[in-house]
Write a structure and sequence with these properties.
19% strand; alpha/beta; 6-stranded parallel β-sheet; single chain; binds alpha-L-arabinofuranose; 6-stranded mixed β-sheet; 312 residues
């Protein structure tokens, strides 16, 4: 027993001695704010000191933050990379400083995969496919003109969610993307871009569905649809990704149809992998994949409640 207590204490001491620097993108969406909140909770549970730098959506701020974490000698660096390219030099610096880097929720393009230790993320191509499959089933062979609200230009998730959806509808000529533009993952831009789609497409009458790369843009689009005098959820179907509480509210009101869940708990698995690496020298799995569930109005009330209970 004494040994076990000693081991547990030793583990706790080691975990509590860890300091992690987290370069977060910003607070562009409800999902992003939830991810930050959960990261703080998960750090606290494990006695980890978490330093968060908000990059306000700019990669240059992320690079500065990473350099500052290196200078501070943190035990690990977490990065939610706003865009996929441009990371090699700063990750080289982290590698030279022997600081493990974990990617959260988005991926990067690097020739040398040893520049990061592991990534915790969903399969974002699959998310797009799930959204497409839901739509194909829902329209059951009827023609459907889709407008797409893309996420941040150059982000892995925007690239992949587009690809997954395009692949998903490829064999179904009845479903076509007629317009596609970035709404930068924000509610306000989602609304703005949807307004322009509606104007360009016979006051929305030529649009059958909106596919938004996140729920916040979908919520902005719902507003634009309502302001144009149309009914979101029926006259224009709404399918998106994230599963934030507000999209379930919209489903309960009959204004949204489907979402693909992305857990905001990206930091928890990364902390566990880091602790195993530091304590046992255990090399983490390179890609720690989170689940992607399709969620529909039938469970919206329960999902809304459970997300609220978790404090999202
Ligand atoms: O990288 C994950 C995406 O970033 C979320 O789906 C979106 O809401 C956020 O801004």
């Amino acid at each position: 027993v004494a040994m076990a207590v000693a081991t547990a204490l030793c583990g706790a001491t080691q975990a509590s001695a860890l300091t992690v620097g987290f370069s977060q993108i910003g607070s562009e969406s409800g999902w992003r704010s939830a991810e930050t909140k959960v990261a703080k909770q998960e750090a606290e549970k494990r006695g980890i000191t978490l330093k968060i730098a908000d990059a306000q959506q700019k990669q240059e701020n992320q690079i500065k933050a990473v350099r500052s974490f290196i200078a501070q000698g943190v035990d690990a660096i977490f990065i939610a990379p706003v865009v996929a390219t441009g990371w090699t030099p700063v990750l080289q610096e982290a590698k030279e400083a022997k600081i493990p880097v974990f990617l959260l929720d988005r991926m990067i393009d690097v020739n040398d995969p040893s520049l990061y230790t592991a990534a915790v993320a969903s399969d974002s191509v699959y998310e797009g496919k799930v959204a497409a499959e839901w739509l194909l089933k829902d329209v059951a062979g009827q023609p459907c003109n889709v407008v797409e609200l893309q996420g941040t230009v150059g982000s892995s998730v925007a690239i992949n969610r587009k690809k997954g959806f395009v692949d998903g509808i490829a064999a179904s000529p009845n479903v076509k993307i007629i317009r596609s533009q970035s709404g930068d993952f924000t509610r306000s831009k989602g609304k703005e871009v949807m307004e322009s789609f509606i104007k360009a497409e016979q006051n929305g009458k030529n649009i059958c569905a909106v596919y938004a790369h996140n729920d916040d843009m979908a919520i902005g689009a719902i507003q634009a649809i309502k302001e144009a005098g149309l009914k979101p959820g029926s006259q224009i179907k709404v399918v998106s990704i994230d599963a934030v509480p507000d999209i379930f509210k919209a489903m309960i009101d009959g204004e949204a149809n489907a979402t693909v869940e992305l857990t905001p708990n990206m930091a928890g698995p990364a902390f566990d992998a880091l602790i195993a690496l530091k304590k046992e020298g255990k090399q983490p799995q390179k890609f720690i994949q989170t689940e992607s569930r399709l969620l529909l109005p039938d469970t919206a009330q329960a999902e809304y409640q459970s997300k609220k209970d978790l404090g999202y």
